[in-house]
Amino acid sequence: MSDMKIDTVKSSNSGILGRARSEARGYGVVLDSSSRPQADAFTNSEAFLAGVSSCGVTLIEMHARDSGIPMKAIQVTIEGARTAAEPNRFAMVTMTFEIAGVSQSQADELVATYRGR
Q1: Under 8 Å between Cβ of 81 and 92
Q2: pTM of the entire structure?
Q3: What three-state secondary structure class fits 74?
Q4: CB within 10 Å: which end of the chain, N or C, has fewer?
Q5: Is 55 helix (H, G, I), strand (E, B) or coil?
Q6: What is the pLDDT of residues 26-56, one digit of tens each?
Q7: What is the domain partition of the chain in residue ranges?
Q8: Distance (Å, rounded) from C-alpha 23 to C-alpha 10?
Q9: How far is 46 from 43, CA to CA, in rounded Å?
Q10: Concatenated DSSP letters for the chain?
């Protein structure tokens, strides 16, 4: 298992009902429950979606650089839909990639690389 990378995050209650503090490598973030009536911070669901969409941004920009593709900018929008009957599950997730500075075929290849990983 020497080739395994282990990421560790510690989360704890914050003293405010429905809000948690999470920390990794000395960096911290406050997350509110997705069911909290008034969320003042990123919710757990938004943080999950942010992790997925930011992975798309960083993976594609690094692959473009390594492949010599002259990408100028990228924006990934992700939307997750949940039903009232099952608020703890995403019924649907959609991602939209906007990539500047590349041809349509290059953009398609970059998105395909993301989907393949």
Answers
A1: yes
A2: 0.86
A3: strand
A4: N
A5: helix
A6: 999 999 998 877 888 899 999 999 999 999 9
A7: 1-42, 43-117
A8: 5
A9: 5
A10: -TT------EEEE-SSTTEEEEEETTEEEEEE-TT-SS--S-BHHHHHHHHHHHHHHHHHHHHHHHHT----EEEEEEEEE--SS-TTS-SEEEEEEEEESS-HHHHHHHHHHHHH-
- Helix or strand (DSSP H, E) at 45: helix 44-67
Topology adopted by domain 43-117: GMP Synthetase; Chain A, domain 3 (3.30.300)
Q: Answer yes or no: is pLDDT of 17 > 70.
A: yes
**The length of the chain, given as a count of residues:** 117
Instruction: Name the DSSP class of 22.
Output: E
- For β-strands 19-24 and 10-13, DSSP reports them as antiparallel
Strand order across the beta sheet in which 10-13 lies: 10-13, 19-24, 27-32
CA gap 33, 19 in Å, rounded: 6
